[in-house]
Structure of CENP-V/GFA domain-containing protein:
Amino acid sequence: MSYTGSCLCGDVTFKLNGEPKRTITCYCTDCRKGSGALGQFISVYDTTNVEIKDPNSKVGEYVVQKTQSGTPKKKQFCTGCGCTIRTLPGKYKGEVSMMRQALLDDDFKNHVPQASIFNDEKERFTSGIKSEFY
């Protein structure tokens, strides 16, 4: 099985080959600030299973130096629309891609998070919000 997705403007597209290692919701400060939301919906893939297509050279990169793991991580995003495409955690030396599942073209509802991380940073009011995904 493979899945396709894109950034908001469509200049950067991607294909995910196979199923993710796991799908999570992350509530860390970096994910909240990077998304402008309460957290991010992420699927973890081996980087070898991710194909990024960037015909107009729009993929930019920002290195987050101060991380909770102590190892810098790279955030790749579209310089046209600003969408984060993926994060490459430094502790995995580029071998793991944390893909933003909200950018999928289809099958979004089939990727239900199996876990959430950094729950201590999750806003308390979110626990009372009902969702068909959880």
